[in-house]
Amino acid sequence: MNKEAYEIRYPLDAVPLRKFAELIGKTETAVKNMVEDGKLPLIPWKNPDNPAPRRGEQWVFLPEFNRAMHDAFANRPKEQRDAWLLWLGL
Q: Which sign does the torsion angle of CA 85, 69, 39, 65 carry?
């Protein structure tokens, strides 16, 4: 199968947490929990002109997320990785 079939595609390389939750079908709370647990590649957005920023945003870097998901899938034992093919008779 084509590697690109498994990738989350969006016109930007990074998206805010709300959009990421929408893309993967999770709630914002679930995504925020993933952030707190250090499970997502984040890019912090802050105003560089503000010397003491109190607010900012965190965006998820999709190319790194896709790379890690591909690696996680590819590195599973073959019997787990290919188990779904049994349903197709392959």
A: negative
Write out pLDDT tens, residues 19-69.
999 999 999 999 999 999 999 999 998 888 887 777 789 999 999 999 999
Residue 4: pLDDT over 70: no
Instruction: List helix spans (H) across the chain.
Output: 17-24, 28-36, 62-74, 78-81, 83-87
Over its C-alpha atoms, the chain yields an Rg (Å, rounded) of 17
pTM of the model: 0.74
Strand partners, 59: 16, 43
Q: Which fold has domain 11-87?
A: Multidrug-efflux Transporter Regulator; Chain: A; Domain 2 (1.10.1660)
